[in-house]
Structure formats: structure tokens, C-alpha cells
Amino acid sequence: MKHQNNSEQLSQLSPQLIIKDVYSIIDSRIQYIEYQAHCRLRNSIKNSVQVSTAKTAMGSNSDTSTMLANNFDQMLSFVSGLETPLKLLQILKTWLREDNLALIMSLLYNNTYLKYSEDHLEQMLKEERVEILA
């Protein structure tokens, strides 16, 4: 069997196939973040119900309310922390084109995109597009 080197193999791949794969990578990261949020919400509700049931049985309603509020606040903090990565991934997905494919792939590598704000990331992708068109 004859083996090809990486550059020969890459030259045989169409940009559209690579774009499709990068879309899949972005989508899987989005799904994973959504899964984390879902699990955290489910666990938060489960723990709240268990503690609420136990405290109510002991007759301690005011402690239960405080604990439930704290649990809810922690869950909201966690979910709001996922908002930025989701937005950044959506920006990458929206701007994914053949002309900025290399940039987006490098941003996805080691989660480099997380170092940028939404505005800065979008500006980088717009500038890459403008430079290609010029």
C-alpha cells in the first residue's frame, strides 16, 4: 500500500468537506456546553427537592427557602458563565467560510477563541474577510 504525506492528503480534501467538519466540531462543542447546563440544572433541581423534602419533614421552612435560593443562585451563575463561550462559538459558526477557515481552525485549537471578546472576535473575522476581498 502506498502512503501519501500529509500535504498530499490535504490537497485532496475539498474546502467544503473541511468546512463541514469544522461546523461539526463547533456544533459538538455547543451541544456539550448545553449538556453541561442541562446536567447542572437537573442536579440543582434534584438536590433542591431532596433537601426541601428533608427540611420540610423536620419543620425548618425558613432554612429551606434560604438554601433553595442559594442553590438557584449558584445554578444561574454557572449557566451565565456558559453564555460567553456559546456566543463565541455561534460567531465562529456564523462567519465560517473558505476564506477564513484557517483562522477559525486556529481559534478552535486549544480553545483560543475564548481569549477574545465577542466584538473583538467578530471584528477579526470581518477583517479577514475584507482582506481576502481586497
DSSP E strands, number = 0
Average pLDDT reading? 82
Please, how many domains? 1
> What percent of residues adopt helix (DSSP H or I)?
over 70%
Radius of gyration based on Cα positions:
22 Å
What share of residues are in beta strands? under 5%
Global shape: elongated
- Category by helix and strand content: mainly alpha
Instruction: Describe the largest sheet.
Output: none
The number of helices is: 5
Distance between the termini: 44 Å
**Residue ranges: pLDDT <50 for 5 or more in a row?**
none
Helix/strand order: HHHHH
Would you give an account of this structure?
With 134 residues, this protein is mainly alpha-helical. The protein has one domain (16-133). The chain has 5 helices and no strands. The protein starts with 5 loop residues before the first helix and ends with a helix.
Search tags:
134 residues; mainly alpha; 5 helices; 82% helix; 0% strand; elongated
Brief sketch in words of this structure:
The protein has one domain (16-133). Helices cover 82% and strands 0% of the residues. It has helices at 6-12, 15-58, 61-95, 101-108, 118-133.
Topology summary:
Blueprint: H1 6-12, H2 15-58, H3 61-95, H4 101-108, H5 118-133
Helix pairs in contact: 2-3, 3-5
